[in-house]
Amino acid sequence: MERQFEKPVSRRDFLKVTASLAAMGITTSLTPDLLFAQAKTDLKGVTLDYWAMIHQQNPVVKELSVSIIKAFEQKTGCSVKVTWAGYGDIIGPKYRTNFVANKKPTVFDATCRWTGALRGFLRPLDDLIENDWDPKIRENVAWLFPVVRDQNRGFPDKDQIKDLPFILIVQAPTLTRRDHWEKAGLDFDKQWPIKDSDQFVEILQVLKEKKVVEYPYEVYGKLWDAMDTQLPGWIRSLDPGTGNLINDDWTRSNGDAESWIKGLQFYVDLFRKYNFSSPNSPQSSDEESVELLIQGQKSIIHCDLLNRGTFLKKMPKEMEAGLIQWSPHFPIAGGQADAVGFQSNFAFNIVKQEGPEAAIKEKAAWEFIKEWFLEENQIALAKALGPCARKDLWETQMGTADHYMESTIPMLSNPAAWPNHPKGVDIQYNLCAPHIQKALQGSDVATELKAYAAEVNKVLET
């Protein structure tokens, strides 16, 4: 497993990191004065194992993470050993297997919907949140606590906060290239943001007829994106009550609901009926579409704000000029505009520690988490990833040329939280994607969803 900071890292290297971030207008709590200062001794001699996942999908965030971690080390004297993990480590058996074998970190980050199988290993954070946190920060993060509890509503300890979100993952805003609208003769200022699916189809038809690109849009059939990006928002816009993967008490799939059938049919039609999406659609992903949008081979896509750092890195001048524009996800015609936002959110988790150093290890983990909630770090992460957890800092993120924050706020008004069910990966990905792929390849939508719901119900019975 890849480790960071096991060997001394030169100050020159860290200055390169901070200079790279500064070039994009991003600064963290690692100031030059702090970098050259002597560390405090509050946690001197303590080693904290951190399994990091937030850097996935975004080349800027690893640099940010390195900077924040170094600031924490310099302030506290604590040594941080980092394992740069991947999504597959937690959605597969790796984390669970290691935890059972007592190979556990002190602290890790992950999306809130993937920790259900690990919940018994996690330390409740309620006492630390209430008694050992800056009241201003706590008050401006507390709006998320009901979301976290909703995600864990099927557990006996559902009221305990074990996942503490620090960056919001809102799925999935709409993204476009303004120059493609101009090439097609579309009035961007009047027609953007897109209001509903009817207008969306009309705009895509113009982009295709004007041959701006062969396939102006993309639907995703790949395992991790089929039921993860734009489709869930369209389904929920038709009926928030059945929009989530499973019902409120985690006993039954919603997959055979009418809202799912209508939503998936529209998704399939964008590919098969209208020919807006490429022949690769049954296997395509949002990460691939991000690259195609950058290359000018796509006009409109849906993707997570996690990808914003990729745009900042690869097309900084175009981003500054406002070529790339974000807007909120939009409903299927006749649906609810405020019902398209799903959240999973990146959160920190402290693993229950054992032995004589348990208390000091957990204290170090909490101090480490608090570092990431400092104003400068929340703003830095927001610039690269999307909205931060602290709502008092949202105003600082407004007014960028790409309007990424303005695209997000409307999607936070009525959010749904992906359930943190221990079998959630199977329910959302492994079982669902094959049926969506079959529908994209011509199978009957209702038949595929009925089969999917039956498979999920069987899982929920075990």
Total domains, how many?
2
Structural category is alpha/beta
**What is the spatial order of strands in the main beta sheet?**
1-3-2-4-11-5
Distance, first to last CA: 33 Å
| Beta-strand content bin | 5-15%
Name of the CATH class of the largest domain: Alpha Beta
How many strand segments?
12
Helix content: 40-55%
Largest sheet: 6 strands, mixed
- What is the CATH topology classification name of the largest domain? D-Maltodextrin-Binding Protein, domain 2
**CATH architecture descriptor text of the largest domain:** 3-Layer(aba) Sandwich
Q: Going by CATH, what is the homologous superfamily of the largest domain? A: Periplasmic binding protein-like II
The whole-number mean of residue pLDDT values reads 92
Q: Please, how many helices? A: 22
**How much is the radius of gyration in Å?**
22 Å
Shape: globular
Low-confidence stretches: 1-9
